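Per your request, structure below.
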């Protein structure tokens, strides 16, 4: 990626010294990967492990330090993450203006080991996630190492895809799409609600692709191989691939994020069209 001349976002903070487990917030497009990896290592069903973790709320511990990430005090990966967030800010500000709406920028929290969020406590093992209660993307940057070492997904753009996907959930939150889906939780069976969850995640993949399209057109930050890197990341976390690796079988009724093929399709559609109107995966476009 060409990021040398790109600005850093003013909406990134660094936290360290927190503790505790968390309830899963909306939209971990890749947000359960580390737990799934642990499940595979111990030969457990990833879906069952994820459900168990969602019910656990461990104690927090210790005071944590909080500071804004700036060019002067940031590591290379923090600078990279901040520049990607800044790029999403620019793209979505323009897109919301086209929709005659105001884009409220999300915050991004880069933490070490654990911290707290509006959705409960957060732990690095859970991977990146978006919390609608405080409009923040939470990310332990060590996840990027796991993405490469455990899944063989390499390249800067794979990392950018992770951030852009979670920002996609912020867009869904602003447009009321996430609330619409969440309101159906108690009115549907688990299988039927899982289908809605898949549609929500696939739309976030589409929105990540749409960001890439506009970032390339306006800032020329995409280089050859980047999009394939994003597709590889989307493929690596398909429900079918993870289930087969963990249990040797695929259970479509338990899907919550979509198959590898579906995730690649919607990311690619967002990238190729760059058209928000093409992103209805079956849950609407927030009335637009």
């Amino acid at each position: 990626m060409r990021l040398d001349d790109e600005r850093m976002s003013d909406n990134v903070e660094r936290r360290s010294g927190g503790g505790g487990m968390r309830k899963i917030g909306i939209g971990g497009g890749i947000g359960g990967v580390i737990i799934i990896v642990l499940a595979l290592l111990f030969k457990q069903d990833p879906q069952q492990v994820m459900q168990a973790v969602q019910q656990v709320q461990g104690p927090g511990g210790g005071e944590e330090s909080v500071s804004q990430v700036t060019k002067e005090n940031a590591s290379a990966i923090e600078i990279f993450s901040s520049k990607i967030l800044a790029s999403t800010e620019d793209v979505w500000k323009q897109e919301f203006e086209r929709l005659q709406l105001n884009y409220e920028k999300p915050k991004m929290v880069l933490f070490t080991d654990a911290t707290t969020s509006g959705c409960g406590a957060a732990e690095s093992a859970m991977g990146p996630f978006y919390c609608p209660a405080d409009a923040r993307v939470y990310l332990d940057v060590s996840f990027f190492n796991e993405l490469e070492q455990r899944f063989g997904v390499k390249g800067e753009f794979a990392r950018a895809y992770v951030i852009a996907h979670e920002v996609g959930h912020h867009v869904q939150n602003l447009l009321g799409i996430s609330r619409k889906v969440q309101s159906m939780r108690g009115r549907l069976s688990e299988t039927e609600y899982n289908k809605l969850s898949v549609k929500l995640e696939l739309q976030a993949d589409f929105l990540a692709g749409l960001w890439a399209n506009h970032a390339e057109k306006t800032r020329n930050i995409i280089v050859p191989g980047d999009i394939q890197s994003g597709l590889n990341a989307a493929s690596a976390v398909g429900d079918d691939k993870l289930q087969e690796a963990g249990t040797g079988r695929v259970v479509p009724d338990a899907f919550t994020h979509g198959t590898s093929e579906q995730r690649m399709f919607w990311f690619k559609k967002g990238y190729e069209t760059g058209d928000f109107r093409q992103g209805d995966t079956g849950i609407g476009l927030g009335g637009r």
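The chain has a mean pLDDT of 82.

Regards,
D.
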